[in-house]
Amino acid sequence: MRTAVVWDALEAALSGAPREVVDLGGGTGGFAVRLAESGHRVRVVDPSPDALASLARRAREADLDVSGLQGDVADLVDVVGAGSADVVLCHGVLEVVDPTLALDRISQVLRPGGLLSLVVGQRHASVITRAMAGHFQLARTLLDDPAPVDARTGRRFTAPEVTDLLAAAGFTDVAVHAVRVFADLVPAALVDHEPGAAAALVDLERAVAQRPEYLPLATQLHVLATRG
Ligand SMILES: C[S@@+](CC[C@H](N)C(=O)[O-])C[C@H]1O[C@@H](n2cnc3c(N)ncnc32)[C@H](O)[C@@H]1O
């Protein structure tokens, strides 16, 4: 439910020939293994040995070949090679690294015309979530401050901030989707116990994903962009 909108856009963009995919900060491989199942060649780069061990287990169980490489944003080019990727995934990572550095390294490993799939936390939804939980000072700080105010969750972005960062890094054809507009607001019991509710919620998320007026309400933004 939480990734349906991201998958829709990614699968449509990657239909056709198998691609060379690099999943930066791919963690335990939720996306990587599914892309490998679809026939793409996938390398996961992550600093966490525990995450890479889980990825290896997951890939083995699915009888798939997914490379797990220990590394981080700063040494991405050394780890995978310049111009070696058709597609780079960077999901849930830009929040905890220097975004300008990350986009520069991603741009270097993508071949010209290659695709970036980016998922980032969206700031306005974060402000509301914190306020609703009674963390008013934290909400107030996050309102104007794009830098991390919470070491656990890291930086949050607005849609214009992300598109500006991508333009500055030389990316073009930027498409932004709203992810998890409702999913985090609905009580889990309602979705779990009401027959048909989960499918109807996914349908609703899909219906608003490409409506710009819903971007400030989304927990996350999914962005597809092309390396110029
Ligand atoms: C929130 S998880 C996201 C995992 C996966 N991309 C997903 O969408 O399910 C963040 C991941 O970023 C990785 N990470 C943290 N610092 C990093 C860095 N400097 N460079 C690359 N990855 C990093 C973490 O180890 C973790 O696997």
From TrEMBL:
Q: Which Gene3D superfamilies match?
A: Vaccinia Virus protein VP39
| Gene Ontology biological process terms in this record | methylation
Which Pfam families does the record match to this protein?
A: Methyltransf_11
User: Is Ubl conjugation given among the entry's keywords?
Assistant: no
Alphabetized, the UniProt keywords read: Methyltransferase, Transferase
Instruction: Identify a single GO molecular function assigned to this protein.
Output: S-adenosylmethionine-dependent methyltransferase activity
Checking CDD domains in the record gives: AdoMet_MTases
Does this UniProt record's set of keywords contain Methyltransferase?
yes
The record ties this protein, via PANTHER family, to:
TRANS-ACONITATE 2-METHYLTRANSFERASE-RELATED
The protein here is known as S-adenosylmethionine-dependent methyltransferase
Taxonomic source organism: Nocardioides simplex
